[in-house]
Amino acid sequence: MSQKVIPQATSTLPMWLDYLENIHTSAIDLGLQRVQIVAEKANLTKPAPKVITVAGTNGKGSTCAILEAILLDAGYSVGVYSSPHLIHYNERVRINGETLPDVKHAQAFAFIEEQRDDTSLSFFEYATLAALKLFQWEKVDIVLLEVGLGGRLDATNVVDHDISVITSLAVDHVDWLGDDINVIAREKAGIFRKDRPAICGQPDAPITVAEYADEVGAKLYQVGFHYQYTENQNDWDWQSGAFDLNALPKPNLPMVNAATAIMALGVADLDITDINIVNGLKKAELSGRMQSVGEAPKVILDVAHNPHSAEYLVGQIAKRYPEKVIHCVIGMLHDKDIESTIDILKPIVSSWYPGSLAGPRGATADELRCYLPKQEATFSSPTDAYKEAFTNAAKDDVILVVGSFHTVAEVLVYLQLQRSSGGQ
After folding, report:
1. Which of 224, 243, 264, 276 is most buried (most C-beta within 10 Å)?
2. Are 414 and 329 in contact (CB under 8 A)?
3. What average pLDDT does the segment 37-58 reach?
4. If we measure between CA atoms, which residue out of 249, 198, 258 comes closest to residue 228?
5. Contact status, residue 146 vs residue 54, Cβ threshold 8 Å
6. According to the model, what pLDDT value does residue 172 have?
7. 3-class DSSP assignment, residue 21
8. CB neighbour list of residue 131: distance below 8 Å, 6 or more residues apart
9. Helix, strand, or coil here: 362?
10. What is the C-alpha to C-alpha distance for residues 243 and 301, in angstroms, rounded to an integer?
11. For residue 329, is it left (φ>0), alpha (ψ between -120 and 50) or beta?
12. How far apart are alpha carbons 254 and 202 in whole angstroms?
């Protein structure tokens, strides 16, 4: 599509997405000046009565999913904005647990296009503003905003939110945020607001988090100090001050993120009961996070793509599938820490199946093979790598698909097509 041809509210979603990918000089353009202009003009800075913004290196999606499940069980109308999507763009916006039809997104894009005039917006900025408008149209009670990159300069930070959450802090996105963990922590703490709660779920967080909270006057709640959680054999406990929750069901998502979500809700001034929390923990799930999609062999999909997330994944695989033969299908982006991520995965992996990812950021299978313990065969795509792993795996083995949203999405699409056609 020509860059000058502007889609209409009646245009298809693919037409809009193609347009948005070509109207700005770069996909990532950190800074709030441009997006702030449009957000204020369109009255989008407060999309719901209550807004919780979630930043972090890993765990943003799972924290939002846990918050969403608990809030829905409590009877609230909830909007969630997350990125990136796995398969369909529509996954980025959920209203009460459901995605919206293409036509709704097209209408929101048309509204933002009208409001922006000559202001240039990146794809993410445009998508963020459109999501905020959708939340307004749907009149949700609570909005959960997942930060895209960093925090201080991310487009989501134009919103006047009530509670700030940091899930974890680690080195990632080095090209944009650098490799100094103290600087990264301060950037993510940039979402904190004066006189409002700020939750940090990173144990022993860099001092810059507390320093920034003091600087802006935010009310910091730090895991290990202001709230704690303890894992038992079959359940877990949560405690903050004189308030505690005992014998909670273990979620299918990281427990530290569940603990952080509960702390955020504890200061949210909402009507939530212990039963809502228990039910939400049982229901919360998220595609691409320890997602089981097959039996005999067991197939696990996980988007872990950096050392921090790989470390958590290894612990879960070792705990849930001890003594199993693990066939690892892996595809990564070349701007990630490939060597360290693979090193962390090595202790649990029996056989490797590296696949090349398409696109300018995709690493080739040969790049991955440089860090593998032996000269494994390489594959042109994660799908081809998965096919070989499936052929080689015994019924009692586990196939782990890992390394990137792109890797998981490609294999997930293949599996869906196979099932719809009566295949494996």
Report:
1. 264
2. no
3. 96
4. 258
5. yes
6. 57
7. coil
8. 79, 81, 92, 93, 108
9. strand
10. 36
11. beta
12. 12
* From 30-34, 103-107, 200-204, 318-322, the region with the lowest mean pLDDT: 30-34
The CA dihedral of 121, 123, 124, 125, to the nearest 10 degrees, is 20
Positions of E strands within 36-109: 50-55, 78-81, 93-95, 98-99
Asked if 141 and 49 touch (Cβ cutoff 8 Å), the reply is yes
Confidence check: pLDDT of 174 > 60: no
Pick left, alpha or beta for residue 166 (phi over 0 → left; psi -120 to 50 → alpha; otherwise beta): beta
Angle at alpha carbon of residue 121, lines to 189 and 84, rounded to 5°: 60
Q: What is the dihedral of CA 162, 168, 169, 171, to 10 degrees?
A: -130
Across 186-191, average pLDDT: 94
* Pairing assessment for the beta strands 163-166 and 78-81 based on DSSP bridges: unpaired
Measured between alpha carbons, how far is 23 from 386 in angstroms, rounded to an integer?
36
Which tokens sit at 202?
Answer: 């990173």
pLDDT higher than threshold 80 for residue 2:
no
Cα separation, 144 vs 123, in Å, equals: 20
Amino acid letter for position 153: L
Q: For 250-300, how does the pLDDT look when each residue is reduced to its tens digit (9 = 90+)?
A: 999 999 999 999 999 999 999 999 999 999 999 999 999 999 998 889 999
**Encoded tokens for 38:** 């449009």
What is the strand order of the sheet 93-95 is part of? Answer: 98-99, 93-95, 78-81, 142-146, 50-55, 163-166, 197-200, 219-222
CB atoms within 10 A of CB 224: 13
Angle at CA of residue 166, ends 85 and 194, nearest 5°: 120
How far apart (Å, rounded) are the C-alpha atoms in residues 187 and 181?
10
Residue 225: how many CA atoms within 13 Å on its side-chain side? 11
Strands 236-240 and 398-402: unpaired
210, containing H or E segment? helix 207-216
